[in-house]
Each structure stands twice: as structure tokens, then as C-alpha cells.
Amino acid sequence: MIVGIGVDIVDIARFERTVERTPRLLDRMFGPSEQALPLRSLAARYAAREALIKALGGSDGLQFKDVEITPDASGQPWFTITGSTAVFVADRGITTIHLSMSHDAGLAIAYVVAEAEDAAQAAGSRGPGIEAATTEAAG
């Protein structure tokens, strides 16, 4: 059952300027394996984190450093979630989080779908943002 969706888009040039002004952001937002990537890829990963926040209904309990995007053997990106953010996700009954990212023409975009196997548990722990996203998706 889908319990939340999120999408975010990032202007890559603006993201690059922000990183140039505040290089410590890379350490605060991205895991070591991500930091070596080109800035356009980091912009897509930033969009993915923002889309995840939207799919989960808000950022309370989420830490960017607990969220890393790692590719599987075929190259498909997946979230690797640890720490307090993993607890936050588990407490909401979310069992699977789908992620799609892309960048082109100076923009990076990410789309996230959060699923739960137990509809009753997910419904009981949903925040208002997740319920609203689910209602819009169904309508």
C-alpha cells in the first residue's frame, strides 16, 4: 500500500553556488561514498532527500546524514537509511521506499514512493502530510 509520495527539483547551478559558499554542507548532508560524485549527481541526491521528507510527511525525526543513496548491482538507486531516521521510518510501518532520480538541462529531480505492507499500522502512524499525499494520489 502506498503511504506517501514526494517529488523535488533542484537547480544544479544554484546548488553548486551554495556548496561553494558553504563547503561543509557536503559533510553534513552526504555520506563518504557520495561526496566524491559530481555536483550534478549530488544535486539529484539532495532532491531525493527532500522528496523523501515529503513522502514521509515532514522532517521531524529525519537526519540527512542517516540517509545515503547507493546503487544496486544494476545501477538503480536505493536509500540506505540508518540511525534515528531508520527508527522514524520503521515506526511508520514503511517497508519499502522507491526512488527515481535524473538530471538534465541544469535541473535535478527525484521522485519517492513509500510503501507499507500493513495498511492498519501505516494508517495509524501517518502524519497529516502523508495522508494528504495519499489522498491526492488516489483521486
TrEMBL record:
UniProt cross-references to InterPro entries, sorted A to Z: 4-PPantetheinyl_Trfase_dom, 4-PPantetheinyl_Trfase_dom_sf, ACPS, Ppantetheine-prot_Trfase_dom
Main location: cytoplasm
Enzyme class: transferase
Ranges where the 4'-phosphopantetheinyl transferase domain occurs: 4-87
Subcellular localization, as worded in the UniProt entry: Cytoplasm
TM helices/strands, residue ranges: none
Catalytic activities: apo-[ACP] + CoA = holo-[ACP] + adenosine 3',5'-bisphosphate + H(+)
This protein's name: Holo-[acyl-carrier-protein] synthase
Cofactor(s) in the UniProt record: Mg(2+)
Residues the entry annotates as binding Mg(2+): D8, E50
Tree of life domain: Bacteria
SUPFAM superfamilies registered for this protein in UniProt: 4'-phosphopantetheinyl transferase (SSF56214)
Record-linked HAMAP family: AcpS
Pfam families registered for this protein in UniProt: ACPS
Stored Gene3D superfamilies: 4'-phosphopantetheinyl transferase domain
Record's function text: Transfers the 4'-phosphopantetheine moiety from coenzyme A to a Ser of acyl-carrier-protein.
EC number in record: 2.7.8.7
Record keywords: Cytoplasm, Fatty acid biosynthesis, Fatty acid metabolism, Lipid biosynthesis, Lipid metabolism, Magnesium, Metal-binding, Transferase
Gene: acpS
Species, as recorded: Microbacterium pumilum
Sequence similarity: Belongs to the P-Pant transferase superfamily. AcpS family.
